[in-house]
Description:
Helices cover 38% and strands 31% of the residues. By secondary structure, it is an alpha+beta fold. Strands 1-8-3-6 form a 4-stranded antiparallel beta sheet. A 4-stranded antiparallel beta sheet has the order 2-7-4-5, with no helix packed on it. The longest helix is centred in the last third of the chain and has 26 residues, at 107-132.
Amino acid sequence: QTEVKRLANLNALIESRTYKPGEAIVHKGEKSRDLFFLTEGTVEISTKDEKSNFILNEIDPPYIFGDIGFLFGFPRTATAKAITRVKVFVLKYEAVKKELPEFPNWLYPILSSFVNGIRSLHDKIRKLEGKTV
């Protein structure tokens, strides 16, 4: 029975979603903390300012996005929109928080290293945005 309970708990953490072309998956500035695992389709990552819509990237599977919001609770730094039909698995933050109220100590150094790499990438993106304005 404990194995069945574990599977039920895991099922509560992960949700499958499908998006149509043109449909937004996340919006820049929103405070959702879910983590997305792209399994099918192409997603456009973009950011808007007063003057233009700046396309940062087009991503194809396998790809994980939404990690900064998931780990730190920062508002979304970009908009993710389906270009084609898109399928994702969503790791729901609130469900994870309920299951793991405290992360194990060994997880912080791993996440910190991962996030430092992502922050470096975001800094480079901001510099590029500054050059194109």
